Amino acid sequence: MSILQVKDLTVTFPGGIEAVRGVSYEVERGEVLGIVGESGSGKSVTSLAVMGLLPKNAVVDGSVQLHGQELLGMKEDDLVKVRGKSISMIFQDPLSAFTPVFTIGDQIAEAVRVHQKVGKDKAAKRAVELLDLVGIPNPNLRAKAFPHEFSGGMRQRAMIAMAIANDPDLLICDEPTTALDVTIQAQVLEVLKTAQQETGAGIVMITHDLGVIAGMADRVLVMYAGRPVEQGPVEDIYYRPRMPYTMGLLASIPRVDGEEGPLVPIDGNPPSPAALPPGCPFAPRCPMKVDMCDDEEPPLTPFGGGRHVACIRAHEIEHKNLTGTDVFPVPVIPPNEVVRVPRAERPTVLELDELIRHYPLMKGAVFKRRVGTVYAVDGISLDIAEGETLALVGESGCGKTTTLQQIMQLQPPQGGRVVVLGRNSAELDKAARKALRGDLQIVFQDPMAALDPRMPIGDIIAEPLRAHGVKDDVRGKVAELLRLVGLAPEHAERYPQQFSGGQRQRIGIARALALEPKLLVLDEPVSALDVSIQAGVINLLEELKNRLGLSYLFVAHDLAVVRHLADRVAVMYLGRIAEIGAVENVYDRPAHPYTQALLSAIPLPDPEMERTRKRILLEGDLPSPADPPSGCRFRTRCPKFARLSEAERRRCVDEEPSVARLTRAVDHGAACHYAEEIEVITASENQEEE
Amino acid sequence: MRSKVVFRRLLRNNQARYGFVALVLLVGLAYVGPFFGAYDWTDKDFLSFLSPPGGDHWWGTTSIGQDMYAVTLRGMQKSIIIGLLVALISTGLAAVVGAFAGYFGGWVDRVLMWGVDLLLVLPSFLVIAIISPRLREGTWLWFVALLAAFSWMITSRVVRSMTLSLREREYVLAAVYMGIPRWKIIFRHIVPNLSSLLIIDATLNVSGAIIGEAALSFFGFGIQPPDVSLGTLIATGSGNATGYPWLFAFPAGLLVALVLSVNLIGDGLRDALDPGSNT
Amino acid sequence: MGKYLLRRLAINVILVAIAASLAYMLAATTMNPRAAYEGRQPPVPEAVIDATLDAYNLNDKTPVLVRYATWAKGVVTGDFGKTWNGGSVNGEMGRRIMVSLRLLLIGTLLGFALGVVLGAVSAVKQYKFSDRLIGVSSFVIMAIPVFVLATLLAIATYNLNRGLGFTLIEYTGEYNPRLSGWDQFVNRLNHLILPTISLSLGSIAFYSRIQRNMMLDVLGQDFVRTAMAKGLRRRTALTKHALRTALIPSATYFAFAFGTMFTGATFTEKIFAWHGMGAWLVDSINQNDVNSVAAVTFFAAVCILFASFLSDLLVAALDPRVRVS
């Protein structure tokens, strides 16, 4: 018997915006239902509608039954007995989801006391127990802390503790790990599995991350434009998708175990819920579209084996056994001319030598004072050869953004050297610095924030040209740049708000290319984009690099994207480089325990591999960069350190390792006293036992 | 493009619409009204002192026989002009000082903010009250300058703190990395992106200045006779308000109406310019 | 922390010193205390005037810097000099601060408390009748300058009393000195009614707008949704989680208003004839009373700096995010 039964759920916002247009699903006890979709597909609105938490002006129709009891239209008096008791919800951003002025313990105890008749002391004790259950160290002490004093991962654990406080039958998780780093994500997913075992609850897992779903879900619902387009058991969806959108989605994700070759993007953008196309909403982007697709929207029809597909050509796909790469056009990317020259013979475009950047650590808004030093970047060295892409990866707080700012500022660094195209940043005068800026440009992470909302994009792209004294034919150059990044020159008059995320990122790239730079710094250029859009931008970057002979410094946290785009990779941890080398060396034979943990934490969009994989889980959070551990900075969380003998450990505690070349490889180094190359991405539990 | 959207939203906002209509009527009354009155504001009717509103003198007369209708409208003109000028100057000053302090930081910030603190600490009422009556031979423009000089500090602090966050925006960083000079970045990227705040602030400053002028004039520290403003009229009127209510009612009523309409527009603008609001 | 406080104190002392000195110089160079003696009948001999003014350190024949030095020396030792007619500025100030305190304390507290409550109600009932009523009323009240409002109240009371034939509500002065004991206390309260209304109406309107806007900002936030997802009623979630968080900015304003209230009620004091600090501001200017002008400035500056410190402290107390750990 199913716990939750949703039937023909529709949600309409004022102005006739249909955010959800007929969603039906069931969840059974102990079952995990994954709902995937890109932003705007209506997946979060669906879950809020189930909880009855949508703003009052939203019109909700259909039926939501919990244990056979209708929730829609229920009075508040009855609804409050269900919320938090039978159904709990875990939100995406745990910082804003906790009230900032109450302690974590109080907020969990409140959840207990709403539904259970217990005293204040008992509720507080229960809150501590729950915090302990989700793996928060010193729960007694931490219960008295305020939300802002918790790290992101700890907050999400606390959120889970609060959600399971009343032993719910159903947990709705709305992007529970999206705001977290991969190693923390792996921890939180583990906690979520524990919570499910503890309560036996059904879970609705909403996310855009196909890797997370592959590891967690029993059944999957794929949403597009407010409707489910495919639904079925997880293996069917991943290995035998029968709806072109699902097929495209799976083909467009870069994989950390992936092979070479361009990604397959889905052209166009998801439709705006205010202006849906007639017929199938995916038709305008679908390579398999026929005239009939525009006639009416195909209903979600049973397909056998518990599967449902909303596509009129589903049977044909089944029959011909088509996959995403068969259906979607695979782009052709011109080969790179520069890399034919051996790396050693190519000029170096960027060199960092023992770069150091420390910040004073200030505390208190009222009594502001310096309480210490943040060792944001603490001696890193790397170099980029012409035509090469070096990726700088690491989790938040590792110092990658600071490194990038130090390079972009072209000012004398606090310590060490920054050499761009052979020119030392410490020796530049004003004119030389400005000239050098033309050769060094940047593409930012957030395509929303990177473009001045009050300037038409033509002016935005022309800004660097004008700043560098280009006067003639600026308009022509802007048009040419727009064409180069795949936009129409007529768009120059429009404002950034009129473009989608992917298009804005292309505008940002066009602006960066305006001065024909030699080195482009890419600061997480695709992390804010949906996967189907992301693939197109990644391909564009690859194509531009090859065509224009650019070199990239690519800063990212997504190791799958890095594997796809980069030639070499440097892994940062707490302001130092942990491991550096050619991509195939670092990914296939990581030698530093941190790299190994990082790679093993990335979920693979492949249910079988993901479920049988051996995971290296890291303990705890990133230490504060203001107070890094002595010796090796990673030792406090290092799984290897835990296995070392007392005598061996001494070396880790006393001596800070620096990057040493590994004997077997040409381009591979790790900063670990006990470096040992192992394979982690595809390592499964079974292999270990053999 | 954006300004059109804002304007549409503004007109859809009831409050703002009423405010707008009221303001247009009031300004019309102040500038067109005098042409319909029988008397000039300098005229003195020696046959009727303190006569109540009636056929000849629509709004009655003062103790020296001035026509209240003409005098009040004249006072209103002055109040409107003072309000507009003060708002313009003080918002402009606030934007420039706040943006420079916030963007440059360091000693520029410290010096400018120290100046702001000092001006905040000085009792503006007292300083204007002492100086302005002594500028009799100077024009009322001096008074405007003084009012403006003491009404920009709070806004400039807000501008500064918003600049601090704008400074880290990626499009500003992008401009820095292009090699664009800093003062240009301030005027091209920072100030335009604060325009919502500045427009709202300027609007509310208009009503603030109108009240400020009236308050100072109430004690005789503002506009000096023979010139009149709503403040000076209310001051004379309030002394005799129980006996000759028309001396007080007309200027006070118009002042309240003026301030109210400007405030309504300001509040409507806030809604229209804030994309998060649900009007 | 000690070092920080010391630095802040030092900066504030300098600010106060500069503000008071500027005010003194301005007053001393532009004001003419001699006028009060010159116009007298019978005429006072110039030598006598000079001697009197010299005794009060107000003689315009003495170079202004010398007068300033004398004044500054006094201030450093805590003596603000003499008023235009020879009274002690210190004594006058002490008396007037107490008057202002008695007048303003109730109004300030009442204005804040009622304003916050009305603002919260308004936000919870957004777009309903009560919200519109509170909104429109506060807009109208905020558009009425306090001197118009006070005058209106005085007129209304005057007419009411006349209609009744006896004085139901007092509208001028602080108390009737002829009464004593319990009667005087009641009489004092009666005298407080009008000024308190005229003071608090404006702040009620002001705080209700602020609190409403802050509440609405907070209402849309995730943590209110979380509180409801836990199983709290909407009303409980709003009052416990949203109101508590949205109180922080209003409290900042309140702390500031509380600190500056002593000099902020000029109009109310003048119109209802209370001889407090605010009224002194106007009186001292009209009487060409240089030392009093400087003293008021000094006091106002101290109040403002104290107020900003108070509001910082209050924020720290209310908001754990900025608290010193």
UniProtKB/TrEMBL annotation, chain A:
Domain ABC transporter: 4-250, 361-599
CDD domains per the UniProt record, alphabetical: ABC_NikE_OppD_transporters (cd03257)
Subcellular location: Cell membrane
An annotated Gene Ontology molecular function: ATP hydrolysis activity
Membrane topology designation: Peripheral membrane protein
BP terms from Gene Ontology: peptide transport
InterPro entries with a match to the protein in the record: AAA+_ATPase, ABC_Ni/Peptide_Import, ABC_transporter-like_ATP-bd, ABC_transporter-like_CS, Oligopep_ABC_C, P-loop_NTPase
PROSITE patterns: ABC_TRANSPORTER_1 (PS00211), ABC_TRANSPORTER_2 (PS50893)
The entry's keywords: ATP-binding, Cell membrane, Membrane, Nucleotide-binding, Transport
Cellular component annotations (GO), alphabetically ordered: plasma membrane
Main location: membrane
Family statement: Belongs to the ABC transporter superfamily.
Database matches in NCBIfam families: oligo_HPY, PRK10419.1, PRK11308.1
Official protein name in the record: Peptide/nickel transport system ATP-binding protein
Taxonomic source organism: Nonomuraea fuscirosea
UniProtKB/TrEMBL annotation, chain B:
Segments forming domain ABC transmembrane type-1: 80-266
Subcellular location: Cell inner membrane; Cell membrane
Spans traversing the lipid bilayer: 20-39, 80-104, 111-133, 139-159, 197-223, 243-265
Sorted UniProt keywords: Cell inner membrane, Cell membrane, Membrane, Peptide transport, Protein transport, Transmembrane, Transmembrane helix, Transport
The organism's place on the tree of life at top rank: Bacteria
Membrane topology: Multi-pass membrane protein
Gene3D superfamilies, per the entry: MetI-like
Chief location of this protein within or outside the cell: membrane
Membership in a protein family: Belongs to the binding-protein-dependent transport system permease family. OppBC subfamily.
Descriptive protein name: Oligopeptide transport system permease protein OppC
From TrEMBL, chain C:
Gene3D superfamilies referenced in this protein's UniProt entry, alphabetically: MetI-like (1.10.3720.10)
BP term (GO), one: transmembrane transport
Residue ranges occupied by any ABC transmembrane type-1 domain in the UniProt entry: 97-315
InterPro entries recorded: MetI-like, MetI-like_sf
Mode of membrane association: Multi-pass membrane protein
Top-level taxonomic group: Bacteria
Keyword terms, alphabetized: Cell membrane, Membrane, Transmembrane, Transmembrane helix, Transport
Transmembrane segments: 9-27, 99-121, 133-158, 189-207, 242-267, 293-318
Location in or out of the cell: Cell membrane
Main localization category: membrane
CC terms in the record's Gene Ontology section: plasma membrane
Family the UniProt entry places it in: Belongs to the binding-protein-dependent transport system permease family.
Name of the featured protein: Peptide/nickel transport system permease protein
